Amino acid sequence: MSIWSVTVLVAAVASGCGGPDGDEEPRRVLLPEADRAPAAPRREPMFGGDGQLLESEEVIAGLTLPRGLEPSLTEERRHVYLSHVPIHSLKQYFGQRLVTGEVDAVQDGAIYRNAVPRDARGGVVRLEVSILPVSRHETRIEVVEIRPPQAAPPSEAEVLRRAAQDRSLTQ
């Protein structure tokens, strides 16, 4: 049954198509589930009772991201997000979760260099996290996973052997 037919039916009931005296109350018509407007999706709160940003379910290299981030770009070790959350709330959130001695203040934002997530367990991946304003109401968050250095650089003899091997393959 469409909304239009329900409207006509309700109008007919309300106009007196009841009992012979016309004093019978109009009947209520319930719409079938399929014809009801879908309920608006419930939005999870972004801030807790203490005013702090809440964690999302997304984790990058042991760093749990906050709510309110919209993915913009994802590459192998680079993750970029946009957010309308106030930049000071984002800096506070990441500042509490990253361990580093290298923090650069840039405009109203910050760059956390060579950082380790505070609660990371197992193989720790170092990160560079930048929180920079894009406009007055939008912030860009970029998380770059830093490749770990090789355990030991190859010896000079090994480098020469690999170069000779590469040349023989290309000829």
Q: Which bin fits the share of residues in helices?
A: 10-25%
Share of β-strand residues: 25-35%
Q: For the terminal residues, how far apart are their CA atoms? A: 75 Å
Uncertain regions spanning at least 5 consecutive residues:
3-14
Q: What sequence of helices (H) and strands (E) makes up the elements?
A: HEEEEHEEEEEH
How would a textbook summarize the main sheet? 7 strands, antiparallel
Radius of gyration: 30 Å
Quickly give the structural class.
alpha+beta
Number of DSSP strands? 9
Give a structural overview.
The protein has 171 residues and is of the alpha+beta class. The protein has two domains: 33 residues, no CATH class; 91 residues, no CATH class. It is built from three helices and nine strands; from the N terminus they run H-E-E-E-E-H-E-E-E-E-E-H. The protein starts with a helix and ends with a helix.
Provide key terms for this protein.
seven-stranded antiparallel sheet, single chain, 22% helix, two-stranded antiparallel ribbon, elongated, 3 helices, 171 residues
Please specify the SSE layout and strand pairing.
Layout: H1 3-14, E1 55-60, E2 63-66, E3 69-74, E4 78-83, H2 87-97, E5 98-99, E6 102-106, E7 109-117, E8 127-133, E9 139-145, H3 156-170
Antiparallel strand pairs: 1-2, 3-4, 4-9, 5-7, 6-7, 7-8, 8-9
Explain briefly what this protein structure is.
It is built from three helices and nine strands; from the N terminus they run αββββαβββββα. With about 170 residues, it is of the alpha+beta class.
